[in-house]
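Subject: Interface between my chains keeps coming out wrong

I've been trying for a while to get a sensible model of this assembly. When I model each chain on its own everything looks fine, but I need the whole thing in one frame so I can look at the contacts. Pasting all components below, labels as-is. Any help appreciated, I'm running out of ideas.
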Amino acid sequence: MLSISGENYRLCDGISRRSFLTIGGLGMGGLSLPQLLRAEAASGTGSSHKSVIMVFLSGGPPHQDMVDLKPEAPAEYRGEFQPIHTNVPGIDFGELMPKMSQMADRLAVIRSLVGSEGRHAAFQCLTGHSSRNQPSGGWPAFGSAVSRVQGPVNRYSPAFVSLNPNMRGKFWSDPGQAGFAGLAHAPFTPNQSGTANLSLDGISLDKLRAREALINRIDGLRDQVEKNRVLDGLDAYYQQAFDILTSGRLAEALDVEKEDPALRQRYGGGTHEVAGYGDAGDLHNDYFLVARRLIEAGVRVVTMAYGRWDWHGRPHGTNFENARDHIPALDTGLTTLLEDLRERGMDKDVSVVVWGEFGRTPKINPKGGRDHWPRVACALLAGGGMRTGQIIGATNSRAEYATERPVNFQEVFATLYHNLGIDPHLATIPDLTGRPHYLIDHEFADPLPELV
Amino acid sequence: MWPAATKAAGIVHPTRSRIRHHLAARDGYFAMASSAPLLRLTHNNAVYWAAFSADGKRLATASLDNKVKVWDVPTGDHTLTLKGHGDGVCTVEFSPDGKLLHTCSLDKSVRIWNAETGAQISQLQGHQNYPTCMALSPDGTQMASGAFDNDARLWNVSPAANGPVLKGHTQVVNSVHFSPDGLQLASASHDSTVRLWSAESGALLKTLTEHAEPVESVAFSPGGELLAAGSRDRTIRLYGLKSEVTAGTLEGHDGPVRSLGFHPVKPILASGSQDRTIRLWSIEDRRQIGQLDGHRNTIYSVRFSPNGKLLAAASFDRTITVWDAESLV
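Reply #2:
Try treating it as a single job with all components included. I did that and got this:
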């Protein structure tokens, strides 16, 4: 899954972006000595580190068909699904979420997520920020910022892994950019092109253990990457990349075949076929399992794009047909992940967030679809020591807008940073001009008090 | 989730399927012992259509995964895949001699393929918006399609050429079907009408306006004496096309009726619905005589095999079920 040479895509500074990102995706560049020492100290701590799994529902899930049903609304608004009671009195979910309904005590549901910039993109769910008026270098993805601030947990795993596959819709396949955190903090992307197996340009792992070949490769790359001042600390980075590749722990984490088949079955299987219009990701529940395995291996942030939730209607299936296809799969994958994390004693350390870029239109369109609705959306949160079994916020009678406790995307990120032990009021990363930036805008930097 | 026992060939063992059917009884219909489809075949995305070859030995299925698969019947072996469409495939039909496959896709193309090799033979385009349906004339010389551009179109098979554009519907055309003699084409539309057209000239012959809600599906009976139309209003209306046949309404579905298929010999109609059920109706008695459960999403297509011994259903749940029709009707 790690390819050093690959296809060339030259940046204006002459550096092969893909080559660099693949290595940089190991997330080890720019490490200070203290960070490395911390990493060394943390090595072998297994799953006890704080971490985040983010599930991005590409396209925008229908909040009113999942966690904010409006059974009293007119038929053209309420849709086909009925609410079902959960194991928390007073909280109902949609009928396609029977497993989550019995695990509502372990979920916190935000019904009033606001501030979407209203465009199809993973960007806001990956960074918390608008894509407009970005600082020099661009906002780093959450995982890249965490990588920059906290460094790796151990020598054998990158801090940030994105399981996003390649998609025709590039706005959804975006695994997250390192931005001004530095390219070395870009995510490792095992499911995207050039990373289909853990080999180095044809050099097998076994051969790689005879380190000379790798060193030769890296030395060749060094000549290029050292031209860029962004790439400080590459000796440490090289060493870390080398350790990751030779240890095999990351490869093993990614190899779902090594998992108990019965547990894998519980996660629900799925398909690698792209969903819906063919421009988004697949509905593959192995990703949930791989995410857990990566966390166990030491990854701090795992992101995954899951399915295609942009359901405008026929002829690509109505909103409700697609909901019957996708939501039960999410129901199985997510609940199994939460059970699995608890069974392994990881649930207090691993925060899970599930959301999309916006909600969907309250009124059903003539094609049986729901269109984009940036005014309000939903998010599911679990684990990480958060107070669950509650609903945060509310919408009006047709799920059109927030009537109580509007929650900004950035507030969710502030909560996630808090869960990781990062204080958004204090942590800064300089942009490419050297100007420091807080990770979260000041007005949203407090974690959600309902959850922490 | 997906069927637990999905194999590479896309077959799920019937005994793992939770499907039961109801059989006709003198005083109505009632649940019989649990039964299962003979085959459950899978695509990697929603399945929009299933069609048997004339000899009943092959089944072609069309999917939102952009592919058409051909399966051996009754083994369920996957024998051929048609690749080339750039978007979902809404319909597939075998030519009467079984040598060709005709497809219509959301990529706005109608294509003809070699049914043995899977090679594409010809491709036609004309619709200005997503096609939704396609039918092949009984003699295999014409295709018809309907689309979101509100048009139905006729196409000549050999040589492949665009035919008349049938204009008149004011909303999307959801379903088309040729009469058994090939002289007429019926089209069902979201504008709540069913229209009958001359299959030769494309002239509008008649507009049926008894539906108050969108019409989702339409089918001629094998003898051409009846036209059935399934609607969003959850009913199936039977229009008598010959003076001695009376009209009627079949009620029972809990959702829009997306698909219809007449038995080739017996006076039986099968219907598939958004309510996820397949229902069997006695045309003589105008009543439901059976129900097949087990699909988890809308039934987009129901089709009896030419000899009436099998029934195939295609669903948005990514599966196709093939049933022993002789035990059902």
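Reply #3:
Confirming on my end. The interface with chain B takes residues 265, 268-273, 275-278, 285, 314-318, 321, 324-325, 328-329, 332, 366 of chain A (CB under 8 Å).
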